[in-house]
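REQUEST ID: PR-0412
SUBMITTED BY: lab tech R.K.
PRIORITY: routine
TASK: structure prediction, single protein chain
INPUT:
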Amino acid sequence: MSSIASFIRRLDTCPSGFKGWKAFEDICIEILMYLFVPPLTVPKVQPRSYSGIDRRDAVFPNRNLTVDTNWGHMYQELDARMILFEFKNYEQEDIGKEEVDQARNYLTKPMGKLAILCCSKSPNHAAHIRRNSVYSEDGKVILFLTKDHLKEMLYIKERGED
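STATUS: complete
OUTPUT:
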């Protein structure tokens, strides 16, 4: 079985909610490393506690200083020295504006202005509205990646595309 097929199988079989939070984060980090390292460097995985549930964020250092690459452009335009990935493996609850605000608060000057929420399901309408207002107010970019987005990026890499 190819690594792409294995990644997708593990992503598809990962339980939603509390029972699968660690497996979801682990497979997402593996996929992101496969997709983005290099040109990004190996992430720093940081333990966190939020509402009594241990969580981890992955922070991928971005050392691409030349603007002729996508990551270099993000470094220059968004001061994206560190790319923050937050993992949301929600089952019943919505991924909403609170999750966007949490990511927004992590985007301090040393981090830069780019965060990506990897979500087991699509964020709700309020999350999209809040994401847009965070950009308008602060110039901070918060992207949403669902399982389907991750799978498509794996297929793109499998085809040899960038």
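NOTES: The first helix runs from residue 3 to 13.
REVIEWED BY: pending
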